[in-house]
Specification:
Elements: E1 6-12, H1 19-27, E2 32-34, H2 41-47, H3 62-71, H4 96-104, H5 114-136, E3 142-148, H6 150-156, E4 162-170, H7 173-181, H8 188-212, E5 220-224, H9 225-230, H10 232-243, H11 251-254, H12 281-284, H13 287-303, H14 313-317
Parallel strand pairs: 1-3, 1-4, 2-3, 4-5
Length: 318
């Protein structure tokens, strides 16, 4: 067991923004191991819906079973590890008190539950690193938590004993809104959902920027999903330089064959195949909803290099 702070890479995003793909690619780098959406782990242990990225149920995975035995009741749903996660699938967006704390950067030392949150999450990251070290013979340089939610980021950013780096993963807001509205009934229901998701895109990304902007200089990077999907070698090389780890040239071809122990997240974690840009929104999304998404979230999207035309800046470059 090491007394050194655990180095954690936190993937922050609105969801449906390619964080699972990025996580799997990072997992293929030497010294980098994924945990998936770590704050869903207690629910996964309880309900076992998707299991571990290695293909086994979480309780039967050699890595996670060691962690579960060490953490004991701290990994029950409703505890500090699963704070901000209401059920397996639901993480409530509007938590007004915590939202104000994130906006104001309120020191959390005196906030009820924070001391336990810091203690239990630090213990969990350490347990993951210790378990991987025992299995692999080498301690991971970084543990990746792709929980995404800005509330968890806000609290982790104030935890002593965790060396936190943040990768802010973004995607064109129209793609995000399309992914969130595809299953809604056409008409008023879909329009309302599109408006809410457009607002969420703008607000959540702004909050991630605000929280990450208070962290140590050089400890935050922003990555666009479209860049990762179109040019994974270029995108991951840049992150390798930032993290100080070696890039492997065959990563885009072999990343799915690399052992991973991620939980929850996109179902693509358990699929096969290479990397393909998902831009179905260009053809499938109603033009009015495209305009609505850009009207609400376009100002935020322009900061990330997106343009209002259906033809992306990436396509213009190529």
């Amino acid at each position: 067991m090491s007394d050194e702070p655990t180095r954690v890479i936190f993937l922050a995003s609105t969801g449906r923004s390619g964080s699972t793909l990025l996580e799997l690619l990072l997992n293929g780098l030497d010294g980098v191991w994924t945990t998936g959406e770590l704050y869903v782990l207690p629910w996964e242990i309880s309900e076992n819906r998707r299991g571990c990225g290695c293909g086994k149920p979480v309780g039967e995975c050699e890595m996670w079973s060691t962690v579960i035995a060490r953490m004991g009741p701290d990994l029950k749903p409703g505890g500090e590890v699963s704070r901000f996660r209401d059920t397996y699938r639901i993480a409530k967006f509007f938590r007004w008190v915590d939202l104000l704390r994130a906006l104001r950067h309120t020191p959390l030392d005196g906030v009820a539950g924070f001391a336990a949150f810091a203690r239990e999450n630090k213990a969990l990251f350490s347990a993951v690193a210790d378990s991987l070290e025992a299995l692999e013979g080498e301690r991971p340089r970084y543990v990746v938590d792709s929980s995404k939610l800005f509330y968890r980021l806000s609290w982790l950013s104030q935890c002593r004993g965790i060396e936190l780096r943040v990768i802010h993963v973004v995607r064109d807001p129209r793609a995000f809104v399309h992914a969130k509205t595809r299953e809604a009934k056409p008409g008023v229901a879909r329009n309302w959902t599109a408006f809410r998701m457009s607002v969420r895109y703008a607000v959540e990304n702004a909050l991630i920027e605000r929280i990450a902007g208070r962290m140590r200089a050089g400890y935050v990077q922003r990555v666009r999903y479209e860049d990762v999907a179109r040019h994974p070698d270029r995108a991951i090389r840049g992150l390798c330089e930032w993290l100080g780890v070696e890039y492997r040239s065959d990563l885009p071809e072999v990343f799915r064959a690399c052992e991973n122990h991620g939980v929850a997240g996109n179902i693509m974690r358990h699929r096969e195949g290479g990397i393909a840009l998902d831009d179905r929104w260009r053809q499938d999304m109603d033009r009015r909803l495209k305009r609505l998404a850009w009207l609400v979230a376009g100002r935020t999207a322009r900061r990330y290099g997106y343009v209002s035309s259906d033809m992306s800046d990436i396509e213009r470059e190529t």
